[in-house]
Amino acid sequence: MLRSRSAAVAVGAAVLVTVVVANQPHDEVIGHPQSAAASTVRTHATPAPPLRTVQRRVEFGDASASHGGAPAVAADSGIVVDLDTRTIIWERNPHLSHAPASTTKIVSTLVALVNFAPERQVTITADALHQAGDETVMGIHAGETYTIADLLAGMLLISGNDAATALAVDTVGMDRFVAGMNAQMGALGLHDSHFTTPVGLDDPAQLSSAYDLAAVATVDQETFPQFRQLVSTIDMQLPASQTHPGFALHNLNRLLSLYPPTVGIKPGYTGNAGPCLVAEAVREGHHILGVLLGAPHLYSDMRMLIDWGFTQRGLRPMVTPSPAPPPPPPPARRPHR
Description:
single chain; alpha+beta; Beta-lactamase; six-stranded mixed β-sheet; two-stranded antiparallel ribbon; 8 helices; globular
């Protein structure tokens, strides 16, 4: 049986890799004898330890001044990084704090991959299912059980806000998960971002930058094979099980079809953020990563930018620039009288 919802079709796929597992601890009960005749027992909840983080500084050198001729694009901010040399070859306000929309989910995915085994079972509660009618959802229901890998597929391919919320609420709780997201940014040496949810909906306190998102995407791609597999998949089927129905998914990242060298990663959109995209492509062993935030011509601009990036490594262009619009006709001359 396939389930679909109007906002999006939901998915999942179980992919097993070795990751760091951090299980939620149980509360510890400590007894305090009060007298030889009688005693009382006080229960003290041991504070939950912070979630684990990847301890790795990510820095890009700035070589943008040495690379001219980039195509003109319309975006609030952006960055193009040559991942082979770890250098920025094009940038526009790369550290500008900007609403990140669903590109946020590459950060929540990193926290999940570091802390949970992909086969870990998660039973969905009603507390995780408070999405508005216009939000993109996977279509999960309270009482159903999914693996972490299933929820990650729902988050990354069809941008399911219900899957992302359940990944936090039904594992370690929203507050602890979001604290892990912010701690992870600090552990990577990034300072432009602050997150309030794992989803990406507009919130004045939820901000990131093109630079920070490029750094997180780099860590996701280089560290976790299952991330690479999910974000590069155009279509996926999640078979029904005893604990949930089957799902079909189609990746929302149109660049996978528009520019074949693309290997992921994640688009997003909200009213405040505008169209956003983090994307990576590979040609002849060269890796180019791009981020555009607030880009009205998102896919055409990203395709041109990344293809231009490959020309900086000596590769022939694959994208023909759009022709310049014809000049306006000359003004009509008034007849001589």
